[in-house]
Amino acid sequence: MKKVLFTLLKSDIEIIKSARVINSYLQNNPHTEVSLLCYQNSHEACSLVKNITNIYTIDSEKIATYLNGEIYPDVLACNVFGDNLKDVVATQWDTVVNLSNDNVSAYLISGLHAEEVIGSHIGNFGSVITTNEWNTYLNSICAKESFRTISATDIKSNMLLSPIDNSIEVLKIDNELASTASVNFNKIRLSKGSGKTKVVGVSLSDGRGKEYIDTTSLVELIDVLESSNEYKIVLISSGEEYEKEIVNSLNAEFNNSLITISAQKSALTAIMSNLDALVSCSNFALATAEACETFTIELVNAGNQEILEKEGNFVIHTRGGFVDDIVYLLNTKYETVLPVHSTQTENSIYETLRDDFGYFKSLVHGEVNLDQELNYHLKRCYNYSLMGYPVNHELLRNLKEKVPAERLMDYIETSKEEITLYVKTLLGALRSLKSTKETGQNTDKFIKSLDVLITSASDNTLASGALGLLDGRIENISSTDVQDNINQIEKYLFELKSDLQQLTNIFGELVSTPKRNKNINQEA
Amino acid sequence: METNGIELQSSRNGLSIPVINGVYLHSMYNPQKEAQAFAEKHEATLKKKNKIIILGLGFGYHVEEVAKELNKQGEYKILVIEPNADLVKLFQATRPFLDSNIEVMSFNEAKDYYLNEDFTNFLRQKPGIIKLDTSFNINRSFFKEFLTFKANSNLGEYQSAMSPAAKALTGERTGSLFDITREIKSQRVVVDKNDYLLLALTEIANNSKEVSQ
């Protein structure tokens, strides 16, 4: 049996979202025992993931208190850490994976005995090493993106060379709890007079960016759904004090008639698998519902990153009132006719979908920011092509057909100006690098140009993925020989040139009237 | 009765009162009434915290009154710090606490408490701290050191307190953990796998600092 360790040293949400990656890996790699390493306060979340042989934990809170407190000798932290990890350190692993792509894991996995290491880790010379291009993408591009173009699940599954399997169950459901939940939920449905009543859960927990559903919106939503025989609201609470206060104030509005379920994380799967829909901010309940294949509506502030990826759900990027949007989505999903005040909305509603490349989102209703949509879809198309996937010609055809030609031209011209600047810097870097190689001069110019290119990866332009890859590739250089390093950097600069040409080709395909594609050298 | 320099005398209402170097640790008239007054004096602390450290065992009367107060509010835990091991032994032999929520800890030196896992776990829960003045005054230098303790960060000083797993990580290294990891980072090449683990360890602390900032 192969022994594989995944480190997941970030949030509980990330742990739940990694469940499909991990279980798909198991599907593709039978005869494997998977263990997880997480922080102690994430043990409950890790315990929900199916098919895990061992869960190892690090008591990070204790360690941090000991190391950051003047009254505690460092030996206490060493004892806790050493004892927490002794079995992990003693094991000869076949593979260790830094699945959460965090700093602690990067050091840690380098210190373990493993045949194979996958994911960002620290090399002998103290720099970050990535193990393949998808790992480089995860490490160098994702952190700089203001919006995710390729989903984290797809990135990780590509990194592991393990296609996502959407048919498998990935979270454990306690049979007894599920059975009790099923009985209770059926009673809830029948309380409205019909076994066909849809039970809609509303999670009261704050989102990961501290966003929340305000009480006025909650009252409005409850009012609409409770007035209908086709729906029944259930409030989902994690038991926090502030949520209890919300429940109290809502019950005061509704004469104590509301049903509230206060559940620990370990019980959520039983609840989610019995709900017909969940409305939630970006929190643990939402991630669990998605993993349990519950129809889910995520509320996120416009401009923030949603957590939903799996197809069949909806994300509302909110700018104003959103109750009508939720009702609209429920009406669409369940073919009901709940009343809405207005079909106009200032929000943007996306459906989560999946194509041959991976998960993506598509605007289905509401405010259209054309530049934003073009940025998202074109960047996704380009970033996938950077990673070796074919160009999404169907997307480009659709854009050509549906976006007014003039608008598209404006967008392309603006983007081309951005690329031109990068190309100028790139050519400057190549020229000064040539001079450095031949005469040892212009090193400063070369370093300055290179620095501009690398920092431009945070610009959030269409080309920033290519610039991020350059950054990651250069960081991966581990040679101590100066000439070797220079040659490698030169190679990566030429790769960047090719990558930027690829983007220009995409523009060429988008332009309506056929034009001769200009060579990058000529444009510079 | 005298045991190891501790004399036990009887109060007016028949309760045992230890006397150390001529100092009565409790009232000779009515130690229980005195203990009630002690609990009342610290009412505000006892209302806010259900975990309490009491400096000085005396003969436990004040501790029991504090426990009574805390019990009114629900769950609680009391840790009594008493450096005089003979007093503790005498107390356990005479009238030990029946309340399982009360624990007495006795070490000679302040640093031994901060090496004790039970004590540090308790301290991490941010307990309230109150003192029995008589005990405090007899052991003033000890309690002063206890309250102002700053750990020696040199790992070399704590070899005997290191677990086998921790020893395997740190080897023969001395200095603070941050000094050790600074040294590792200054090396051109990392040669020992355990060095990566030590770097991971300090990274956990750094992450926590960033979060709290």
Task: Describe the 3D structure.
- The complex is a heterodimer of chains A (524) and B (213).
- In chain A, strands 10-9-8-11-12-13-14-15 form an 8-stranded mixed beta sheet, sandwiched between helices. In chain A, strands 3-2-1-4-5 form a 5-stranded parallel beta sheet, with helices on both faces.
- Chain A contains 20 helices and 15 strands.
- In chain A, strand 6 and strand 7 form a beta hairpin.
- In chain A, helix 1 (12-28) packs parallel to helix 7.
- Chain A folds into 3 domains: 2-159, Rossmann fold; 176-368, Glycogen Phosphorylase B (Rossmann fold); 405-523, Four Helix Bundle (Hemerythrin (Met), subunit A), CATH 1.20.120.
- Chain A is globular and about 85 Å long.
- By secondary structure, chain A is α/β, with parallel strands linked by helices.
- Chain A has helices spanning 12-28, 43-46, 60-68, 74-90, 103-110, 133-141, 152-159, 175-191, 215-226, 241-253, 265-272, 284-291, 323-334, 370-386, 393-402, 405-439, 443-455, 464-475, 482-510, 520-523; strands spanning 2-8, 32-39, 54-58, 93-98, 114-118, 121-122, 128-129, 198-203, 231-237, 259-262, 277-281, 296-301, 314-318, 348-354, 359-366.
- Chain B is an alpha/beta fold and 213 residues long.
- Chain B has 2 domains: 2-147, Rossmann fold (3-Layer(aba) Sandwich); 155-212, no CATH class.
- Chain B has helices spanning 31-41, 43-48, 61-71, 85-94, 110-115, 117-124, 133-138, 140-147, 164-170, 177-186, 193-212; strands at residues 2-3, 6-10, 16-20, 23-24, 51-55, 77-81, 102-105, 128-131.
- In chain B, the strands form 2 sheets. Chain B has a 4-stranded antiparallel beta sheet, with helices on one face. Chain B has a 4-stranded parallel beta sheet with strand order 7-6-5-8.
- The relative contact order of chain B is 0.11.
- The mean pLDDT of chain B is 91.
- The interface between A and B is large, with 39 and 49 residues.
Characteristic key phrases:
heterodimer, A: 524 residues, Rossmann fold, Four Helix Bundle (Hemerythrin (Met), subunit A), eight-stranded mixed sheet, 20 helices, B: 213 residues, alpha/beta, 2 domains, four-stranded antiparallel sheet, four-stranded parallel sheet, 8 strands
